């Protein structure tokens, strides 16, 4: 898919929405003293890794969303894309502000299901959009295991 004339605005809006939303939520819900006191599994990554990983993933999520949006603004893939973004954005405040590790675990399970659904439904239409979600699925699967381990340990 080549970028058609006038589409730069759309891609910029997707970057602003996804990266901007992610940065704002990350800033407002930054892990604090509560998270520092939690018992974590030995495979818990260092805190500095999250910002570059999520920034990269948010760029990929934005591109995939823009590609699917161009093909159908009310399509099933687009609805899945919006669903994953909503679940992604609500997980952080539930976990870090609400201190609800259990509810966050349920949200991240739904998030992973939605991501996998997006990958499956876009595979035939737009392999690039589908493949852009593969690292996201892997990271969220890891985050699910981490969330579950933290829940069990605390």
Automatic annotation (TrEMBL):
Membrane topology reported for the UniProt record: Multi-pass membrane protein
This protein's record includes keyword Methyltransferase: no
Spans traversing the lipid bilayer: 12-36, 48-68, 80-97, 103-121, 133-153
Signal peptide coordinates: none
GO aspect biological process, one term: tetrapyrrole metabolic process
Keywords: Membrane, Transmembrane, Transmembrane helix
Cellular compartment(s): Membrane
Subcellular location, principal: membrane
UniProt cross-references to InterPro entries, sorted A to Z: TspO/MBR-related_sf, TspO_MBR
Top-level taxon of origin: Bacteria
A GO CC annotation given for this chain: membrane
CDD domains: TSPO_MBR (cd15904)
PANTHER family: PERIPHERAL-TYPE BENZODIAZEPINE RECEPTOR, TRANSLOCATOR PROTEIN
Membership in a protein family: Belongs to the TspO/BZRP family.
Descriptive protein name: Tryptophan-rich sensory protein
Natural source organism: Bradyrhizobium sediminis
